[in-house]
Hints:
By secondary structure, the chain is an alpha/beta fold. It is built from eleven helices and ten strands. Strand 1 (120-124), helix 7 and strand 2 (154-160) form a beta-alpha-beta unit.
Amino acid sequence: MRSLTSKNYEAELVTLSPYPLSDEMFLWVQKTIYDKAGISLSQKKKQMVQGRLSRRLRCLNLQTFEQYRDLLCSAQYPDEFTEFINALTTNKTSFYREPHHFHYLQQRLLPQWFASSRPVTIWSSACSTGQEPYTIAMVIKAYRQQIGRKGPEIRILATDLDTQVLDTAQTAVYELDSVSELGCNQLKNGFLRGIGDNHNKVRVQDEVRRLVQFQQMNLNSLWKFTHQFDLIFCRNVMIYFDGPTQQRLLQRFHKQLKNDGTLILGHSETLGQCEIDYRSLGKTIFCKR
């Protein structure tokens, strides 16, 4: 029997799909997901789109992508655009991912905030299944224990476009394997081990969870904030946007940051023409000018 690697497994799913995706329909998908979410899909993503959206066609008992387009454009299923976006978004994350960002939070930002005692607001703007904002909260909890006091009020807003990943984040239950590379102190500081039927799972501690508020948000829609942020995380999401969308988003982040506020991007993301608005602190950490 032929071995199925993750790569050829995905290829077989697409091959077996009974729903052909024409170039015309793929162009419609590209335009629609760009208009709705700012996500830019290249031609090489066509097979991925075919496989993921075919699941929606099966779920809705449709036979063609043209029927699916007509359904989306009608008022019959108003929630289907949410499912459409959920199907096409990619959510890859882990606890303490790119750890130098959390070291900076612990060693530089938290001492500054605790010295001033003013309220602090943090935005995890593409939080996926919650590992990033919960890691931020765990770092805060550990720092409070280290210095022996609660310090200023700190609130973490965690947002994502995908409602399904937000459901996972709010549940705060993860597979045991997802924390297998964390150290003993990190595990003790942030998680509870499952028992019985949940022996292969972990749950984020309540003290950590209480620091985080989750909310569905499209980064390319209108933001209705009434305050600015001390720190914004936007890691590994701008790579899915085209250049103009990236620049607009960076300009909006700049307006949403407090004076000397901090913006943290993913390891492969840059400021482009917005370099004049920020001062680089190294390792994709930037301070508002």
